[in-house]
Amino acid sequence: SAFFKPIHNSDPPLHSNRCTKVSVVGVGNVGMAIAQTILTQDLADEIALVDSKPDKLRGEMLDLQHAAAFLPRTRISASVDYSVTAGSDLCIVTAGARQNPGESRLNLLQRNVSLFRHIIPPLAKASPDSILIIVSNPVDVLTYVAWKLSGFPVNRVLGSGTNLDSSRFRFLIADHLDVNAQDVQAFIVGEHGDSSVALWSSISVGGIPVLSFLEKNQIAYEKQTLEQIHQSVVGSAYEVIGLKGYTSWAIGYSVANLARSIIRDQRKIHPVTVLARGFYGVEGGDVFLSLPALLGRNGVVAVTNVHMTDEEAEKLQKSAKTILEMQSQLGL
Ligand code: 6V0
């Protein structure tokens, strides 16, 4: 432009076309919390937004663009057409129908599967090399649905799963012990929500395994207290939804954290929804649920061999059975 004059004998301007692009489908509370966290954490050069409501979509895009003076330079685009997502490195799906009063979970699931039939194929076509993160609920079954509909290899389809439950768990343990939640290692695995499994034996704080420390030092602890902490985790989504109508900030940070591990090849371990067949005695079909997984530029690099008691593995197998039953009714 006439605004700038090149310095003498300079090379022609470099236009690097290698940028990191992230697409978010569904600009509701959850999609926007994820988009804005990714934006403020400078994880992408381009963010593309898709929704079926054009006015809401344009409003959200403009509102984010108007913050440009305070943010890292990021191109923000939006359209109801999936061509806007072309060439994404990472696609995050948060679109979903909400449960109607009195509606069964299976019915809600069937409605969301119909939505996914309109979302996943064009998304996968526009970005055939991307990694998909599914957030919409029920996240475990919908991750399976997205895997089927995308035709992607299994390492490139994951669900946000119990990453959020685990972060709630770490917060509650940290709060209980009055330490920093980042120093608490603790995993919740299995189905996201009601039947999730807390792995007590693997909890450590600052490298100290908590349960064996308590046992060795003959410090009495109440199994009940531990169970209560897990129950608060299970209840926390209901509690937040009951109070403010939806959840957004924690899921926003939790998914941005997954995005960072993938985009920046951090090879960090996160409990996320992956194909669980063959792990910890989960058999019977292609079932997706959360296990501690190593995430990198390729998506799911591996599943970690965390210690599980027989009781914990049994709970996991039970959730797998329930999820498989739901899947079998989908006709996919
Ligand atoms: P919301 O605020 O109703 O947003 C949903 C958005 O999806 C709306 O903007 C819709 O217009 C849009 N949408 C609907 N159909 C389509 C379509 N066919 N194509 C494109 N966009 C469409 O819901 P909210 O943002 O609160 O929640 C979104 C989903 O995330 C729900 O399924 C939640 O249950 C789920 N969550 C999952 C969590 C997890 O840990 N996995 C956590 C929180 C919420």
Fold and architecture overview:
With 332 residues, this protein is α/β, with parallel strands linked by helices. Helix content is 41%, strand content 17%. It is built from nine helices and 14 strands. It has helices at residues 29-40, 54-65, 105-126, 139-150, 163-177, 210-216, 223-244, 249-263, 310-328; strands at residues 21-25, 46-50, 75-78, 90-93, 131-134, 157-159, 184-185, 188-189, 197-198, 204-205, 208-209, 268-275, 288-296, 299-303. The strands form four sheets. It has a six-stranded parallel β-sheet. A three-stranded antiparallel β-sheet has the order 7-10-11. Helix 3 (105-126) links the parallel strand 4 and strand 5. Helix 5 crosses helix 7. The model has no long low-confidence stretch (mean pLDDT 92). Ligand 6V0 binds at residues 25-31, 50-53, 56, 94-96, 98, 115, 118-119, 135-137, 139, 160, 164, 192, 246-247, 251.
Write the layout of secondary structure elements.
Layout lengths: L20 E5 L3 H12 L5 E5 L3 H12 L9 E4 L11 E4 L11 H22 L4 E4 L4 H12 L6 E3 L3 H15 L6 E2 L2 E2 L7 E2 L5 E2 L2 E2 H7 L6 H22 L4 H15 L4 E8 L12 E9 L2 E5 L6 H19 L4
Parallel strand pairs: 1-2, 1-4, 2-3, 4-5, 5-6
Antiparallel strand pairs: 7-10, 8-9, 10-11, 12-13, 13-14
The structure holds ligand 6V0.
List descriptors:
9 helices, 41% helix, 17% strand, binds ligand 6V0
What binds here, in terms of ligands, is: ligand 6V0
**Unreliable stretches covering 5 or more consecutive residues:** none
State the separation between the terminal residues, measured CA to CA.
54 Å
How would a textbook summarize the main sheet?
6 strands, parallel
Tell me the overall shape.
globular
Main sheet: which strands, in order across? 3-2-1-4-5-6
* Fraction of residues in helix: 40-55%
Total DSSP helices: 9
Average pLDDT metric: 92
Give the topology string: H per helix, E per strand: EHEHEEHEHEHEEEEEHHHEEEH
Please compute the radius of gyration using only Cα atoms. 21 Å
**Helix-strand category:** alpha/beta
Strand content: 15-25%
Tell me the number of strands. 14
